[in-house]
Amino acid sequence: MINRLNLFLKVIELGSFSAVSRAAGLSPSSISRQMDKLEADFGIRLLNRSTHVIHPTEAGLALAPYAENSLAQLDQARQEICPPSEKVTGALKVSVFSTFGNLAICPLLPKFFDQFPDVSLTLNAEDCMVDLTKENVDLAVRIGRPQDSSLKMRPLMANHMRLVASPAYIARHGLPENPEKLRHHNCLTFDRNRKTTWWHFDQDSRQIKVPVSGNLRSVGGAPLYRAALAGLGITVTTRWQSHRAISRGDLLPLLPDWSASLDGQGANQIYAVYLPDRHMRPALRAFLDFLVAELAPLNC
């Protein structure tokens, strides 16, 4: 009955047996049989089936909140009366934008697998929005609050920016003493199809913007970051992207008393988003808790 109620709620959420099949790893015919048995248990039709879409009947709509509450109570009871499992197992599929995946997530994976050796991970590092249901993705990392209100989310960290350059560049050109001095430096900037590029700075209640220019522009931040490492110029990058290079001495933080941004709006949040399953799998919970704990030092 418990598994059938879980599937029933998933069918209502996704609207088709095929969508539930992709999410749950079961065949559509198996899901259909389980729903037939659930309807037999209650002695009433719970779902209206059509070729493409499945809708709950009036009885199905009435059952759904009772099913949710019952499953939540059973899950709570299980946590209270059962000893915690020593092993967390399972496979996860995670989608993350490429730079964050390469620089922030991948360096943490050896530690994660040391703690959870029985979890396997498929990591898709790509710069595109994925449909978690269609792509069968367990967790995605996104910058800014997701517009899809059906997704659950958990903030990972603030996407703070900072001004950086290599020691070699500073040795040749000197430190900028204030934001205005950036006019005289080679600034590596994002290509936003604008005639003038502005960098924004905030210090206490004082806000200024400075026009900057240089010999390299890029749609993405990775080329600018690599060029700054190579000593080409000054750029604005995220703190999570630059903190290891700064710790090694490969980059220097500039104008530390000023908060830098590209648009004057301050820092966005970086979120982990996932489907609103009532019972989060232990492997997903473990990975999410791990990310929150390990990324906390960068959330400053």
From TrEMBL:
This is Transcriptional regulator. Keywords: DNA-binding, Transcription, Transcription regulation. It comes from the Bacteria. The keyword Transcription regulation applies. Belongs to the LysR transcriptional regulatory family. PANTHER family: HTH-TYPE TRANSCRIPTIONAL ACTIVATOR TTDR-RELATED, HTH-TYPE TRANSCRIPTIONAL REGULATOR. Gene3D superfamilies: 3.40.190.290, Winged helix-like DNA-binding domain superfamily/Winged helix DNA-binding domain. Residues 1-57 form the HTH lysR-type domain. Pfam families: HTH_1, LysR_substrate. The keyword tRNA-binding does not apply. The lineage of its organism: Bacteria, Pseudomonadati, Pseudomonadota, Alphaproteobacteria, Emcibacterales. One of its GO terms (molecular function) is DNA-binding transcription factor activity.
